[in-house]
Amino acid sequence: MRLSCRRLAAMALMVPAAVAQAAAKAPAAASPGQPVPGRPAVTKDAAPSRADLLDGLHARLYLAKDGPQAKVIARTIRELWLKAGTDTAVLLLTQAGKALKAGQGETALRILDLVVRRWPDYAEGWHRRAVTRYMLGDARGALRDLDKVLSLEPRHFEALFTKAAILQELKRPAAAMEAYRAALLIYPGMTPAREALKALELKLDQTI
Q1: Tens-place pLDDT, residues 49-74
Q2: Model-level pTM greater than 0.90?
Q3: Which domains does the chain possess?
């Protein structure tokens, strides 16, 4: 379980190149009522807010269960989490991911320390630092960061999954199962969480 969870956590840390490039090229947000260069003018209420988009996507994610559409919806939610940061923050997450992939974990951690200090309300910065801490063996530090993520984004199913994996590693099965179930209430089609929960429940049943 330890190896597979760490591999899944590492995958979560990688910023898709297309997403990072799109965020880097996106125009800066305009003040309410001020048109964005190159785009048609819109009224303040014309476009749904990020919160409204997430609410709709989470509703669709829950209803999609484990069908192929669920993966597409989950990916869109991840992109919104990422794009909640500034262009600079997104690029720093990209650099941290590259550093970790190259085996430079401490460099990745220093970059992510900078991100969470500079943008403390950016949930994805805390999430990426939690994953990096977990990969470097700092399970308790990772848990603290994951709790911060969930205070900012309570429906962050990846943070819940990683938290569950760490709690399981720390021999806290009841708390781990609670976190897995919480992730599945948000994303019923999250196969790694469902399989991990099933294996843990089976293991506990065999010890009774």
Answers
A1: 989 999 999 999 999 987 889 999 99
A2: no
A3: 2-21+51-207 (1.25.40.10)
